[in-house]
Amino acid sequence: MPPFRHALRMSFDTAKAVLAKSFPEHKAFPSSKFVTEANNVLMARGYSKENTLFASSCCSDEINRLLDYQMNSWGEHFQLGGLAGFPFVGRTGFAAYQSHMPEKDGRLFIMCAAHVGVSRAGNLGYCNRPGMESESKACGSALGAYSHLLENNGCDGDGTAAEALAVHDLQQHLITRLVKKHFDDIKKADDPIAKLSLVVAEENYNEVCAIIPPDYDRSEVAILAGLQVNTDTEVDDFFIPLHFKIRGKDGAYQDVFGELMSKLE
User: DSSP secondary-structure letter at 124?
Assistant: First the structure.
């Protein structure tokens, strides 16, 4: 095997081993396979590029390649997320999103995800970016929030600093508040970075559900949630699915997570 190909295989296998150790209760799948099967679940229910408006609530970090896969299937997308993938657009943003939906048999499909890197050396929370020799943090926002809390014994800092942060760095301020709610559980976890990543992913999913008004009845809304895993740029990323539900016009949720997992496994 040529040295370059051998290096790629080592990176892919390293990522698989790290994920199995750090997330023993969850399964990770190559992103290309995951996206294909998730889309198949929806297409079997009448979702198509012609009637579905896709939205993402994922971190703005350029290494998140899952959108590339999804946009090949669904076309243009509406951006709901900001730092760490949290849907900062709120209900105003959702109102704008649903108003852009195709008129004939319109559907909405939201993919929300936190992300975490795995470097070539097997370090969770880090990745290797093009043009950079040293490893880089991923997700930098989530890890930055956790590091800030560690340095301040679980506190946001003094009132003046917190107020300034809220004004000039609003998204990061809110991510820090979000992480603070779970700080003790994260700190005592066997793998704090893995726990942090899952906490942010769950918070993102909960907030995506919350920005849909209870009385929204114009269409179905499919919500796919989980954790993106950033690997080497020449290797397929991974995805850890956590939720897959379809909200009906009546507000009731149909869980299709089991159907997706059966296709993936």
Answer: B
Q: Long-range contacts for 86-92 (Cβ within 8 Å, ≥24 apart)?
A: 86/57, 86/171, 86/174, 86/175, 86/178, 86/200, 86/203, 86/204, 86/207, 87/57, 87/112, 87/204, 87/207, 87/208, 87/211, 88/171, 88/174, 89/211, 90/211, 91/211, 91/213
6-49 pLDDT, tens digit each: 565 657 888 899 999 999 999 999 998 999 999 999 999 999 99
What SS3 class is residue 66? helix
Nearest 5°: the CA angle 244, 90, 105 is 55
The answer to whether 107 touches 39, Cβ cutoff 8 Å, is: no
Euclidean distance between CA atoms 219 and 166, whole angstroms: 35
Helices (H) and strands (E) in the chain, counts: 10, 9
Domain boundaries, the chain: 3-132+191-264
Amino acid at position 75, single letter: G
